[in-house]
Design a protein that fits this description.
Blueprint lengths: L2 H20 L4 H12 L1 H32 L2
Helix pairs in contact: 1-3, 2-3
């Protein structure tokens, strides 16, 4: 990845962790707003990284449940 994607992904990891740790579901939106004030490109990369990481988490939870139910059958 390029520098924009690398930085945006690192921020996404930190923002998602901050949301989880603090229980504040506005962290991602606030970080995106801050990024957008200076760089729309970075904001878009950040939001893409957030969506990809959230989708990955949901898919892994689904697969884990599927494998557990299959092992129990």
């Amino acid at each position: 990845m390029g520098i924009v994607e690398d930085l945006a992904d690192a921020l996404a990891v930190d923002a998602l962790k901050a949301e989880e740790d603090t229980g504040d579901d506005q962290v991602v939106d606030q970080v995106a707003e801050i990024l957008g004030a200076d760089s729309i490109t970075t904001q878009e990369a950040f939001l893409t990284a957030i969506r990809v990481r959230k989708a990955d988490k949901r898919a892994r939870i689904y697969l884990d449940k599927k494998m557990k139910s299959s092992a129990g059958s």
